[in-house]
Amino acid sequence: MKKTPLAAALLLSSLSPIEVNAENLDLYVDKNTRQIYSEPGPDRVKLGTFKQVEDKVQLPPPPPAPAPATVASPQPKTPSDKKWFEKLSLRGYTQIRLDEPLSGDSQELRAPGDRFIGDNQSLGIRRARVVLSGDVSDHVSIYLQPDFASTPSGSSTGNFAQLRDIYADLYFDKDREYRVRVGQSKVPYGWENMQSSQNRLTLDRADALNSAVRDERDLGAFFYYTPKAVGERYRHLIRDGLKGSGDYGMFGLGVYNGQGANRAEGNDSFHTVAHATYPFEFANGQIVELGVDAYTGYFKIGTGSITVDGSSFTPATDARQHGFKDQRVAAHFIVYPQPFGLQGEWTVGRGPELDIDAQEVRVRSLSGGYLQAMYKLDTKEHGVFFPYIKGQTYDGASKFDTNAPKMKVDEVEAGIEWQIRPELELVAAYAHMERTNVGSAPYNVVDGDLLRFQLQINY
């Protein structure tokens, strides 16, 4: 029989423990039965001497149990992964206005900034605006704002949809310090004109500054430069509810048609505007802004028949093809309410104005402005309160009204804004007004007192 390690191993596994534990083992095989023995005997043939060898075989560890199957959660998209339409945002606000006459000739009062002042008035929708804005790319952003509470001139029906803003900002650098704004947008003249009515504390803008640009907007192109640090300061003023005006550049320069928003150009001459302002920040965190604005151009007025003392006439305009010289300069300062605030603007200039005695429209000087004090009171339980008082004056023309009548304004308004929640604001104010009714001849000055309310819903 052939001796092999395998045969020996099989044999060892069949022996008793005593036999297996022997150091050397002689094995014999019976020639007849072929059985194997550990001792010699008749008909047994010695196979050989064997030594037990123990091999420790280590089996590999069992494979780890497979982890339970999981569904991978979608990773949020980075700005660069988003489609341009995914970067757009939608927001807006609505204002409900009520003006209640108190005394004097308040039923006869008329104000360009609030069509709900006067007789036969009740609740009205002052604003109903929706803003769609966002980045198309790293170098282009868009802004679209319609108003659903407009009333065309001479119409007794309100709440028409009308375009307010539609423009694109074209950026030249990655930090967005340099840009050109093209389209219909606010003309950078007058700080309060730039401030959104959603953020403005008082119910209306001051007439001296607001009479410069109809609806504060026009179609044009404006270059703005805002250093990165200054831009962050403007965002801070809006974000912290300090009644900021937004970012219209530390410096701005542009051209625009000059006839006002949603009006066709009246001549072949652009208006030119320049704007410079800077928000200084002091060591205690107080921000104070100072700036100047100026514009020049030619404005074409509309004329119509006037009846004064029983005599009717249409004012002469010297058949001026390009319109009348229209020039103004303004200065502003704002001590932001932290918590006390002070704000003021003043403008001087010249422009078209009706001379009733001469029965013609001439270029005449104008001036006016306002001063406003305010206080920001934060409470945890009841929201934010903004008491304020504002006085304004203006002696100049209302160039957007037919015949550009002379406008006299002396007004004081005191009130309080209550920011009940971020989405809900209520304003209550008392106003004493002395102002010209520029809507119809003979353009009388009316004196009266009003109690005014406005509810604003932000969304």
From TrEMBL:
Renumbered to this chain, the signal peptide range is: 1-22
Outline the segment boundaries, as ranges, of region: Disordered: 56-81
- InterPro entries named among the record's database cross-references: Porin_dom_sf, Porin_O/P
One Pfam match, given by its short name, reads Porin_O_P
Q: What keywords is this UniProt entry annotated with?
A: Signal
Coiled coil ranges: none
Name of protein: Secreted protein
Question: Which organism encodes this protein?
Answer: Hydrocarboniphaga effusa AP103
Identify the taxonomic lineage of the organism of origin.
Bacteria, Pseudomonadati, Pseudomonadota, Gammaproteobacteria, Nevskiales
